[in-house]
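User: I'm putting together notes for a lab meeting next week and I want to include a structural view of one of the chains we've been expressing. I don't have a solved structure, so I'd like a prediction I can at least talk through. The sequence is below, exactly as it appears in our construct file.
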Amino acid sequence: MAVALPRIALSSGEPAGVGPDICIRSAQQAHAADITVLGDPELLQARAMALGLPLHIHTDPHPTPVAQVAGHMHVLPVKLRSPCIPGRLDPANAGYVIELLERGADACLQGKSDALVTAPVHKGVINEARIPFTGHTEFLAERCHAPHVVMMLAAGTLRVALATTHLPLKQVPAALTRTGLEATLATLRAGLKARFRIDEPHVLVLGLNPHAGEGGHLGREELEVIGPACDALRAQGMRITGPVSADTAFNPARLGGIDVVLAMYHDQGLPVLKFAGFGHAVNITLGLPIVRTSVDHGTALELAGTGRAEHASLEAALEAAVSMVRHG
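Assistant: Thanks for the context. Below is the predicted structure for the 328-residue chain, given as structure tokens.
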């Protein structure tokens, strides 16, 4: 059922990074959505002052959705664990970052919010605090008890999904299994149909090895894992081309009629997408029981509090979330 005024939970991310900055910059304009920022009100107010931007923070609950008014921010208060200095990571605040995500995901699961949009976090400092964390995608899959999720980035008409996400490169071949790839392709198909209203998505699947294995001479994953998985889903009626060589896959002629490219690992597909639309791309998690989008960039610690951080990707993430809620 269409939602007239979507309710968006916006996690402000790593407090020492640009997450608070871009949330504040986004709040400078009106939105046709009820946006609630999860974060420490004192941090957000102090950062707004540092940026020289007007910000009226409201922490009182509002039972009915209220459209975002320029210069105003609805905040669900979460207290910092330790004072924050822009640009300086502190493992003491790792628990704060995790709480933002937990409360945002739970709000969606409980029907209090229609979508979760996330500002960037810093994986390293969370792990330094001895909290196992490989990324938003994996964290939200566990929190939402989702059996299989797919990380997909979109920039304009180009969409790139990943068969594996945040893994060291040497672990990728072992992580690629026929069962896993079949689940990824099925999740990708279902997500594009449900969230993007594509009747029958056409997926271009990349090989793992140079020249897609060169007939087995440059690796056998295409013959033993990727190809059979594609064949199994094609037999079920899914539109799949591949596996194809990654070095020519992003040729405009090759992409004609393709709805999404499935890359085998993080840095196989995302450099192309970010070259095409960095700063305006959106990270989308498919396979969750909730709508989740995110920015396409990291914490940019060197920009925090300086006023130089761009918020176009956050705007794109918010727009994508609103669109999926309204048409989902």
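A couple of points you could mention at the meeting. The chain has a mean pLDDT of 96. The CA atoms of residues 31 and 242 lie 41 Å apart.

User: Perfect, that's what I needed.
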